[in-house]
Write a structure and sequence with these properties.
Radius of gyration: 13 Å
CATH class: Alpha Beta
Number of helices: 5
CATH topology: Rossmann fold
Order of helices and strands: EHEHEHEHEEH
Shape: globular
Length: 135
């Protein structure tokens, strides 16, 4: 079984709910973005990252984006997964994030999971399945 981390930032609690479901599916260790470093990333086989859409369909730039940029170099050869919630738009931030990860040579273990606002039962089940794909 892989050693899995779930790292997230949540402003309203929606992405946190998703992170908990991903962690349940992967039997993973849960971290907030503020509590995760590149040194820690080295100790995991797979990592799921969760961030909601912010501003003009972009990642949260106060804590999450700086953390993700700092750990990106430690992700080569690891399976990663992406998830997050949004309130407007159509998920452009996630498509952009996934494309940027693939362009950087990172391996996505599964299709990203997005939920509009509070995740419903189907969204939480998709998050748990995402975790299982990492484990």
């Amino acid at each position: 079984m892989s050693k899995v981390a779930v790292v997230y930032w949540s402003g309203t609690g929606n992405t946190e709910m998703m992170a908990q479901a991903v962690a349940k599916g992967a039997d993973a260790q849960l971290f907030t973005a503020a509590d995760f470093t590149a040194d820690q990333a080295a100790g995991f086989d797979a990592i799921a990252f969760g961030c909601p859409a912010m501003g003009a369909e972009e990642l949260e730039d106060g804590e999450f984006q700086p953390m993700f940029d700092a750990v990106k170099g430690a992700l080569q050869g690891k399976k990663i997964a992406l998830f997050g919630s949004y309130d407007w738009g159509d998920g452009e931030w996630m498509r952009t994030w996934a494309a940027n990860c693939e362009a950087d040579g990172l391996t996505l273990a599964a299709e990203p999971v997005i939920c509009n606002n509070t995740p419903d039962d189907e969204g939480l089940a998709n998050c748990e399945a995402l975790g299982k794909a990492l484990a």
